[in-house]
Every structure is written in structure tokens, then in C-alpha cells.
Amino acid sequence: MERWDDGYVTDVPYTNAVYRETTPAWLAMATLLLGHRPPDLAQPFRYADLGCGNGVSALTVAATSPHAEVEAFDFNPAHIEFARDLANRAGLTNIRFHEASFADIAAMPADALPPFDIIVSHGVLSWITPANRALVMDIIGQRLRAGGLAYVSYNVATGWAGMVPVRALMRMLSAASRERSDMSVNAIWATLDRLKEGDAGFFAANPALEARLANLRAQDPRYLAHELLNQDWHPLMFADIADAMASVKCTYIGSATLTENIDAIGTPPGVQPLLAEAHDIRLRETLRDFGANQAFRRDIYRRGTPALPMSEHHRLLNAVVLHWTGQPAPGDIVFNTPLGAMTGNAAVYRPLLDALEAGPLTIAEAKAIPPFAGRPMVELLQALALMIAGGFVHPGLPLGDSAAARSATAGLNRAVAALNADGADMPRLTASTLGTALTVDMTETLLAGALLDGQTAEVMSLTTELQTLLRRGNRSLQKEGKPVADPVEATNIATAIVRHALDRRIPLLRRLGVLGV
Question: Which value, in Å, is the radius of gyration of the alpha carbons in the chain?
Fold first, then answer.
């Protein structure tokens, strides 16, 4: 009998991740930086998530844009149950979760799903059958409105070439195991270690694999199960995806990984002339993937690409509001690029970061900061792209500071904090002004939840509450990686955490719309 899961891992749920590149504010900013008109997020808009997993990214969109309609789809009932429960706990009414396969979605009548302004499908295309991949394209063709954005991400053949036989072996070992997919991961690593220790020639012939395997070994076993242990696992070529998207009237406009849109830092110098000579976008992006040994793409497509008048482009750019995320940079400002780590020129980036730490800025205001005053706007835009990609800065979400968005976001954060207090592992808080979630320390989610529940912002009462919540979730405070057993020392550490939060973090979280109105 044919399996309902088509060979996809379903014996363990996916991780509760939020992918910033799938959020409307990020996609709109990327689209604008690429020279195209983004959706107007200040107006009601419709957003779809195809393969939403546990739904946390979609819930983040719904909470921060209560004027939007969000539809999220996944064929795994465990994912949909979790997502619906969290939506109910958060009190969100502008999101619907559908337990549906891609075939089910494609077969829905036109009036069941009006056109969407944004459709995203993160981490899906490389992990499903070719037939399901074709259905995803059909859904985008049927449901994306003219001028709408489609985001698709996938593994790229260039960066995974050496892993193909290793992944096949890992899948075989998992299939032969009697354990749950994530529980089989340790035995898989043990077998690979025995192969290497036994002088298996494959590893000697592919020395670059060592770093890739070390990186994978550090990941959550649940993530590895979904990443590597499915029946279908297909690293793809950009040209194949571009052709499929072109068949449904969608044109590639650029990458949601902002650094990949800047040739000077995204491609080796010796490859850049080849890019300049390539007039076909399929060839150009393929050359780029070879140059950077690209392993994962986050592509943005647009349904229709009319010329954006320069005056309108500048007007839209100037109005974008930028926020500091709270990510510190006490020393050098370091960015990760496709070619490795890059240290930014302090004379350029420090004044911009200092200004943003003091409060939000529009791009028009940022242009007046000394390093950029009187300089071509493209220099500021490239600097901002690096700072946004590096996590230091985030574009603001229109209406994200409204009372409705702050209230809905507070409801989601309160629900997440309550789950964490019961032992869940969701170290993130949603920021309404940004339209995304911030990765934070678990204690910060518990403190935020306490404040949202009406706890007094006073050191001793918050310290007592934090310790109570940690015990409730069977957690303990850590020192040098070990649980603190002494009650007095634990109280001192909890007090220090609370003081730091009240002095530094809570004011920022209020500013970013994490803690309500």
C-alpha cells in the first residue's frame, strides 16, 4: 500500500524554527534592494506557507501583521496539531492551518483560496518527490497574484556533491535501524567514524567532507533526521528551478540571503568576470554557485517584473525604517559572507550601528550619517545589506508598532513562554516592530512571559518567579556548563540575570514590540 508520507520522515516532528528570510518584512526589503516593487505591507495582504512544519514561522507572520490573512499547509498531522494549539493559546484568529498534501492543495477549488501576495516554501523542494515538486510549482502558478512574491529554498548540487553517497549510506543505516529516525543518528555517526578509522578510501579522496560532517554532527538530531534521512533527497540546480518557475510566470529577482546579491563578497574575484560576461540568468547563477560552492539557495521570484521608476524606488527606500536587533558588537563588526568571515571597516559601520542603537532610523536619515553623507546611495545600501544579513539590523514592519500588532505579538510570546515553562524548547521571542522572532536565552523567554502575565518588574519578585519557572520546567541554572546545586549560588546567579535583563534587555524588548503596548 502506498504510504501517505511519500517516504518523508514523520516519526519525529520538525524543529520549532523561525526563518527570518520567509517573513514579509525581510522579503519586502530584499525585493526593494534588488530594485523591484515589494508588496505594500501596510495594506491587508495574504500570505501562504507551503510545508509549514510546526507553523512557528507562519504564526510569527500572523501575530506581527494582524491585518494579514495567513494560510499554512503541512501534510503531517502532528505538525498541524501543534500549530493549531499554539495559535489557540496565543489567541490568533487571522491564521488557518490545513492538514493537506500538495496534491490536496492543488486540487482545491479557486474560491477556496483567493490569490496570495506572498507564497513561501522553505526547506521543501529538495526533500520531496519530483511529482510533489511539480505540484508546488503548480500551486504557485495557480495561487500567486500578479506582482506577488514567491520564496523557495533548496539544497544545491554544487555544495553537496561529495555528500551524495554519504547521505545515501546514512539513509540506509537509518532504514535498517529499529530506532526512531532522530534516535538512529548516533549509531550513524558511529558507523561513519568506524569507516574513517578503518582507512576507507572515500574519505581520503574527499577531504573537504570533514568540515561538512563536523558541522552536521553539531546539529539537533531532529533537524538531521529531516535534512538527511528522507527517502527523497535531491540537491538541485538553479536552472531547473528557474525553468519550472518560469513556466508558471515567475521570474527570479535575487537571493533572500542578502550577501549573495553582492558580487564583490559573494563570488571569488577570479569568477566575477565570468558573471559579467553571462547574459543568461541561468548561466550566471550557476556560475555563481560554482564560484561559492553553494550548498543552499533562498531564491525570490516575482510574478511580473515591470520597471520600477527611479523616483519611486528612492522614495520607497528612503521610507524604510531600520532597527537595531540588540545583537552586540563590542569589538570588530564581523560579517559572514559566501566566501567566509569579513571584518567591516569600523569607520564605516560603527557610526551607523551607534546611531541605530540609539533608536530606529529611516534610510533617509541614515544617509546623513557622516560616513555616507554626500556619498552614492549604493554604498549605504550595501552596508545595510551586510548589517541586516549579519543580524545587527532589521527592517521595520509597517504597522508593526501598532497597538493591534503589539497585542497579538504579546499573546504569541506569552504562549511560547508558557510552553517553555512546561519544559518546551523554544528559545525565541517575536518582535512586532520587526515582523520576526529573535533568538534569545531561555531565561529571557521566561522573564518575558512573567512580565506579560503581570509580574512586577522588580528584582526580587522576578528572581523568585524565574527560579519557580525553571523548576517547573525541570531546568536549572548553569555555571561553566554545569547545573548549580547550591541554592544560595543559584539565587545569586538568577538575581544577576534579572538585573541584566531589567537594565539592558527589557527596555530593548519593549522598544521592539516583544512585551506588548
Answer: 23
pLDDT score, position 1 = 38
> Does residue 443 sit within a domain?
no
- Per-position DSSP letters for 97-159, written without gaps between them: EEE--HHHHHTS-GGGS--EEEEEE-S-GGGS-HHHHHHHHHHHHHHEEEEEEEEEEEEBHHH
What is the domain extent for residue 343?
321-395
Contact 229, 171 (CB under 8 A): yes
Strands 95-99 and 69-74: parallel
123 closest CA partner among 33, 62, 51: 51
Same domain, 60 and 192: no
Q: What is the per-residue pLDDT across 205-251, written as a single tens digit (0 to 9) for each?
A: 999 899 999 999 999 999 999 999 999 999 999 999 999 999 999 99
* DSSP-assigned letter for residue 68: S
Same domain, 146 and 260: yes
Q: Stretch 193-199: mean pLDDT, rounded?
A: 94
9 domain residue, yes or no:
no
In the chain, the percentage of residues whose pLDDT exceeds 90 is 88
- SS3 state of residue 399: coil
Q: Single out the residue in 201, 228, 255 at which a domain terminates.
A: 228
